[in-house]
Amino acid sequence: MRSVCLIGAGNIARTHADVLADLPTAGAVAVCDTNADRARALAEEYAIPYVFGSLDDAITSETFDSAHVLLPPDLHAVTGRRLLTAGIGVLLEKPMALSADDCQELVVEAADRDLPLGVNHNAVFYRAYLELRAGILARSYGPLQHLLVVMNHSKLSFPPPAHFAAQHPRNLAFETAVHPFSQVYDLAGPLLSADTTLSGRRELAPGQPFYDTWLVSMVCERATAQVCVSYAGSYPTWHLTAICEDGILTAAIDHDRITALDGTRWGEQYEPLHIAVSLASQEARQGALNTARSVASALRGNQGSPWFTSMQASIAAFHGCRAPGQPRVDGNFARNVVAVCEEASSRIPAAVTGRVGLRGARRCERCDVLLTGGTGFIGRDVVQQLA
User: The whole model's pTM is what?
Assistant: First the structure.
């Protein structure tokens, strides 16, 4: 049984601790975080015996043989390399690193030392995705031709200005688009070329822009693909459509639903009835199944949600519990996903740096409203309304 140290005690660490608590092949024995109070709180909540305030202290303690790196993406490569050179197996949160070259260094280091190296690409472990994947691999609907992935987030869910995703316009590729990119790589193979179109330029703060909508068109080894990631709407959704030679499969990733359509042997005149009956029966079956799952999830404290079960399956796979039909997410897999992130964001202009002066400022003798934090996108909307 592997002994695991959680490197980082932020929000995602609780999910890792929850999964490890029920895993027969690994368990959390240590927490490492520069925030001592946060580390102790996590350790007390999950009865984890060891707490460390630095990576060096954790490594020299020799209390664990594996580590989950749960830090911001810009720290993944250096932290992973330090652990591997110390003879410790590593599971990194996605992305593996911020460049394919850094990923390759980690792959070589792990191979030279015969250590396990993985990345938590939970997007390829959602139940609906795995069902769609099985249909494609079985060629039940003919060879795959094209993928279309739409991931729409509420604009209120975009991370705050201090978050990694907001520090540079290209970071959205590594923070959010990395999820559909991992699905495209798994199904369509390595990237050959990519073209990215951006829209919805906003400023989180003066000199700190981001683009709320990305459209990435890709040519991969086995198929073409388009990925749309947006923070411009209010209705969250994550849909993946696979267009095959003899049919279409569509998965609602975050709602555990999948539908499949193919032709009917009875002729074109019966096609409308065939489609209606097929979709109705599939939706009814999945609706009943997902209702049962939802009730069971509520009784377990939401431990059965599509997101949690994908995290559970991904972490378990790294620790030797990969189920049939699940992809092998190793260092090479993760390096290829980072290569997609790099190419998709390679021509995005950098953020403006330096001090930004006040424009059109005026002094008021009296005011009715004090607005703090007015430089974010919510604050800017409020300012416009007040003006």
Answer: 0.85
